[in-house]
Amino acid sequence: MAGLRFVTEQEMQVETLPWGPHDWLCRAGLVDAELLQLVRVHIPPGQGHAFHRHPHMEEIIYILEGTAEQWVDREKKILTAGQVAHIPMDMVHGTYNVGETTLSLLAILSPAKFDGPALVDVSQEEPWKSLRG
C-alpha cells in the first residue's frame, strides 16, 4: 500500500482511539510522506483528546464541524468550523468537544518520520490535571 498518490475511503487507515475514530489520510507507510501527516478525527460530545504533547512534531488543528475547547499551553479558545490552532513542537495541548454534536477536525502534523514517541500524555500531571476545573 505504500507509495499511494491518492487516498480514498478504501485506502485510508482507520484507527480507533479512546477520544474517537481517526481517519489517516496521509502518513508514512500509506503514502511516501517524509514531512507531513494528515488525520481526520471525530470526537463525540463530552469527549476530548486530553492534555498531551508531541516531542518531535508541530501540529495544526483545523475544525471541520462542531465546537472545540482548544488549549495550547495554558491558553484556551473556543474554536468552530474554519478556525485553526497551531501547536509548536513539544507544547502541551488538548482538544475537548464542548458541543452537542460530533467534533470533526483535521490534524496536520510534521514531520512524518522521527525517532521517539509520537505522543506523551500529561493529563494526569499538574498543572494540566486541574486546569479545566
TrEMBL record:
Q: Which GO terms describe its molecular function?
A: metal ion binding
Q: Which domain of life is it from?
A: Bacteria
The UniProt entry, under Pfam families, shows: Cupin_2
What are the alphabetically sorted keywords of the record?
A: Metal-binding
Please report the stretch or stretches of sequence annotated as the Cupin type-2 domain.
Answer: 40-108
In terms of PANTHER family, this protein maps to: CUPIN TYPE-2 DOMAIN-CONTAINING PROTEIN (PTHR35848:SF6), OXALATE-BINDING PROTEIN (PTHR35848)
The molecule here is called Cupin type-2 domain-containing protein
Q: Name the source organism.
A: Tuwongella immobilis
